Structure of ABC transporter ATP-binding protein:
Amino acid sequence: MSSDQVELKGQPESAVATADALLELRSVTKTFGGLTAVSGVNLLVRQREIVSVIGPNGAGKTTVFNLITGIYRPTSGEILLNGQSIVNQSPDRIVTKGITRTFQNIRLFNSMTVLENVLVGQHTRLKAGVLGSLFRPPQVVAEERKARERALELLSFFGPVLIERQDEYVSNLSYADRRRVEIARALAADPKLLLLDEPTAGMNEAETLDAVKYIRRLRDELGLTILLIEHKLAVTMGMSDHIAVLDYGQKIADGLPDEVRYDKRVIEAYLGRQAKEEADQRDAEAAAREEE
């Protein structure tokens, strides 16, 4: 791990943050009554990185997303975007600052078309008010035309299929295509940071591989920074710049994929204490062979 990479323990990441940091969590804690869902989590996400947050079920991953996007307010700690606190700001205000997200369970408007769903994502960027929408002066018509062009551009990012089905109800699409529409809707708000909550959940192997490709393209072609939650370790290990691991609301590891892959705390969190003991035994045997 490089000297300026997020360290695993000791001083908080804020001590080693660099000028290109986009998002930073400093000792963030969230409690619900007597339950601590997230405890003292530090996280640093740099510009144009793909960062994964992983961990067993109930580890606090989605809670972290809800804290970043303003659905929850932290009990303590700071959340900074471009060095400015976004704590206590409403979800819609955080969207205007440049953070959008998808959800573990797809949240589209099933009674609306594919195109209409993406247009909804642009509402924070449009200027027309109630009167403008009613009387439709030239500037409102022009704005609506640009919004439609932008929505079609975003749909085309995923290939011709969504363009061809733009006027169909989104409920008619396959699960994988609905997931793509949800991402297109999030992109419509012109984010700097895109949060993806289990973007390959429910997908088969071919669909998962395609999702990995377009997530990389979101970073490489659109210049986005991406923070994602993902249960498929092969997916996160294959495309992440670095990975943070949560267990029982605490961060237990944070580093490059290969560092996290062989971290004994991570092995224990995912596979149990027996797997950790087996890993320790293999390490001891390897060390003994080297001494022979």
